[in-house]
Amino acid sequence: MTIDASLPRRATAELIGTAGLLVVVIGSGIQATALSRDTGVALVANSLASAIGLGLIITLFGPLSGAHLNPVVTLTSWWARRTGGQGLDGRDALVYTAAQVVGAIAGALLAEAMFGRVPGAFATQVRGGGHLLIGEIVATAGLVLVIQGLGRIGRAKLIPAAVAAYIAAAIWFTSSGSFANPAGTVGRAFSDSFTGIAPQSLPGFVAAQLLGGVLGLVLAGALYGTDRTARAARSAAGADAAPGGERYAGAGTDVGPVAKQDADPNAAPDPAPGSGLDAGVGAGRDAAPDTGLGVAPGTGAGVAIGGVEIEPETTMADIPRPNTQLGMTA
What we know:
By secondary structure, the protein is mostly helical. The protein is built from 9 helices and 4 strands; from the N terminus they run H-H-H-H-H-H-H-H-H-E-E-E-E. The protein has a two-stranded antiparallel ribbon with strand order 1-2. It has a two-stranded antiparallel sheet with strand order 3-4. The longest helix is centred in the N-terminal third of the chain and has 29 residues, at about 5-35.
């Protein structure tokens, strides 16, 4: 479900969520290099921790703010609204982006302080070269395509796990290491560590990420149509349940109230009020007409079909014995 929160609360969620993401990414990188001199082992640890942390943060903050944690994701949401879909307006998008950048810097400084390092030292690792920028375009385009694609086919519930899995893979299959996040890239410039990036590399990476976001939107539109047309198609196909259902985090499917389906459709109706008989589900279907549901006439017994206790004054002799040949009480 989604929570109807004010803009300040949603912006706070974006700030805290982005800060948490940077703590996970930078902190796991510092820890990995401290424990192993093997770069491959360090990258495995860093990618796994980053993916797990990202999935948890999206799950936690998604119902509140959408858990964008990334200006590119926010801009794609803004564009979706401009083209007739669901998303953020211009003011909300600006506030989200500012909160994400502040959160990313705060998370980087916190990670540095947590490991006993001096916060505020800029990264010295230069990440330059056209091949790295191509890697960032691919990484960001893929991220946007995953989010937009799942949203447009009505499977937004899968986004936390899908995004986490994609980032874990993209850290390995892209030449740039899949920053794919302008706010996160700025934050990582404040950490001279395994995951840092020198300030002079920021312009190229951020430009590549924005270009990748545009490419991801184009691909999503080409494959799935616009957000508005995708929602219309799902509605025509019956993806939305009856009114009164509860929408789960923009998944595109409304879950209506759960109907009771425990009763046997062939069961006999409940006895009339005051009859003294509580018939169980399907009870009395084999009894012959006018037999009193299997109770011998004139006994006055309060026997209930379905295992209710016999009243104390009833003796065993009063209980009819089954006739196995006829399938009814004698």
